[in-house]
Amino acid sequence: MAWTSITADALKDEGIISASEYASITAVSLPDGVTGAQVVAQVIANAVAEARGYIAANSENILGIEGTVPDELRASVLVIIRHRVFTRLPKMKALLDDLRVKEYDEAMRKLRDVSNGTFKLVQPITPADPDQQAGGGSMQVVNKAKRWATRKKLGGLF
Question: What is the pLDDT, as a whole number, of residue 146?
Fold first, then answer.
């Protein structure tokens, strides 16, 4: 499967939020001068980075090109974005009904399952550069010590 980037239009185009909700989000302006569109862009970047962190936490996974998520997790990441946008912008929390909160909980559970290795991902066709891959959790033997005590040298002690 492919790894794709997520844009603000994907929220509306893929049916995660309605057209009227999308218009309300982009029309909002926060007191500090930040627009709703800027909030959405920041939430998207954060959610994608978080999802990639969950993916990289499992050493069996390889990350795709920077800023992309696998198709298997795309809907989950969009649900997480919706939830976080609605909780970040004023007067939008009312749009989070029980079903949407449950979808968010399921999306977070799926990310944890990816991290634990119980939800497998198809590896990307074009992986990210090696310096962008997670490097923790593995061990490499740098030097092997010579064995001084062997069965022949310790003859009679066994």
Answer: 78
Task: Identify whether 146 is part of a domain.
Answer: no
What is the b/e burial string over 71-102, where b = at least 16 CB atoms within 10 angstroms of the residue's CB?
A: eebbebbbbbbbbbbbebbeebeebeeeebee
Q: List the structure tokens of 147.
A: 């064995």
What's the burial of 103, exposed, middle or buried (CB within 10 Å: 0-12/13-18/19+)?
Answer: buried
Has residue 78 been placed in a domain? yes
- The DSSP annotation for 66-80 comes to TTEEEHHHHHHHHHH
Q: Where do the H-state alpha helices sit in the chain? A: 8-13, 19-27, 36-56, 71-88, 98-116
- What would the pLDDT profile of 37-95 be if each residue is shown by its tens digit? 899 999 999 999 999 999 999 988 889 999 999 999 999 999 999 999 999 888 888 88
pTM strictly above 0.85: no
Residue 81's domain spans which residues? Answer: 3-132
The total number of structural domains in the chain stands at 1
